[in-house]
Amino acid sequence: MTWERASLGAVIADLSAEGVDLDALVSADGVDLEAETPAPGWTVAHQIAHLHWTDELTTLACRNPIEFAAARERLLGGPLSEGIEAGVAEGLEVPAAELLARWRTGRADVLMALGDMPPGARLEWIGPPMGAGTMASARIMETWAHGQDIAEALGVDREPTDRIRHVADLGVRTRDHGFRVHGLAAPEAEFRVELTAPSGAEWVWGPDSADQAVSGPAIDFALLVTQRRHPDDLALEAVGPAAEQWLTVAQAFAGAPGPGRQPLATAAAL
C-alpha cells in the first residue's frame, strides 16, 4: 500500500510503545549498563544518556522555543559531535538507577509535550524545522536505532515490529539530505521504494514509473538509513545508478555524515 502518514496521536502511541520495549530490555535482571555497544566508545549507559539528552531537547523545543534556540546556538557553536558527547557525559555523572529514572521521566515529558502541540505547529530542531508528527517519528527512529545498539550489546535478538514504518518513512524523506551531507548533488528524479513490513504488508513510496528504485525488507532499510548495518549486509536491491549510490550515503539523522558500520565479515575479523 502507498504510505500514508499516521495521525499525531498514533505516532505518539508508537513512540510510547518503542520506549516501553527498550525499557524492558535495559531493566531485565543482570543487564550491565557498562556493556560495550557497536558504537565505538559507547556503553549501554552512553546510549541511554544520549536518548535522555535528546528527549530533553525535544521537550524544550516544544515548550520553550526561546530557550531551545539558545541551546541550539550553543550546540552548533562548535562541532556537533562535541555537543552530543557533552550531553552524554552529563547523563553519565549519576548512578545507573538514577540515569534510568531520569530517562523514564524524560520519555513521559516528551509524550506530553508533543501531544500538547497545536495542529500545524512546527518545531525548531538541530536540523530543519519539522512538524510535531515528524518530530515524534524522529524520536521513534532514535529510540529504535540506539535500542538496536543496546540489543546487540546484550546479545538480544529483537523481534521487529511495524513501528519501523516511521523509520522507513524518515529514511525516504531524508534521501536528499544523505546526498548533500556527503557533498553530492541530490537526484532530481523521484525514487520508487518498495518495502516488506515485518507483518508482511507492502509499503510503497514514489511513482511506479520511476527509473530509480530500492526494494527489500523494511527492517533492512531501517538498518541502512540509521547506519546500523553496512549495505553489503542487507537484502536491499537498488535499480539505477542514483539508487545504488543512495544505499552508500543514506542517513535519516541530522548532522555531518555518519561513519557507518563496517561489513560484518570485516568487523568479525578485527
Give a short summary of the structure.
The chain has helices at residues 8-26, 44-63, 65-75, 80-91, 96-115, 132-154, 164-173, 175-181, 218-225, 241-249, 264-269; strands at 122-123, 130-131, 191-196, 202-205, 212-217, 237-239. The protein is an alpha+beta fold and 270 residues long.
Describe this structure in words.
This protein has 270 residues and is an alpha+beta fold. The chain folds into two domains: 147 residues, Four Helix Bundle (Hemerythrin (Met), subunit A), CATH 1.20.120; 106 residues, Nonspecific Lipid-transfer Protein, Chain A (2-Layer Sandwich), CATH 3.30.1050. Helices cover 54% and strands 9% of the residues. It is built from eleven helices and six strands. The strands form two sheets. It has a four-stranded mixed beta sheet with strand order 4-3-5-6. Strands 1-2 form a two-stranded antiparallel ribbon. The protein is globular, with a radius of gyration of 18 Å. The model has no long low-confidence stretch (mean pLDDT 93).
Keywords:
270 residues, alpha+beta, Four Helix Bundle (Hemerythrin (Met), subunit A), Nonspecific Lipid-transfer Protein, Chain A, 2 domains, two-stranded antiparallel ribbon, 6 strands, 54% helix
